[in-house]
Amino acid sequence: MTKQIPALNCPLYGVQLIEASAGTGKTWTLSALFARLIVQKQLEVKHILAITFTKAAAAELRDRIRKRLLEVKYTLEQEQPNPEEVVGDYLYGWLQKNGGKQLGIDRLHNAIVNFDEATITTINGFCQGELVEQALASGMPFETTLISDTAPILHDIIQDYCRQQWRQAEPLLVNYFLSKEEFSLSSLYAFVSSILHQGQARVLKPSFLFNGQLYQQTEQFFNKLQQLWQSEKTLIQQLVLEKLPVLNGKKYREDWVLGWFEKIDLGLSIDLMAALKDKDLLVCLERFAYSRLQAALKNNSIFPQHRFFDGCQQLAELLAKTDKQLQLQAIAFKCDLLTHSGKALLERLHAKQAQSFDMQIKGLAQALTHADTGQVLAQALRQKYPVALVDEFQDTDNYQYQILQHIYLQAEARKRNCALFLVGDP
Question: How big is the CA angle at 275 (ends 271 and 277), to the nearest 5 degrees?
Answer without folding.
Answer: 130
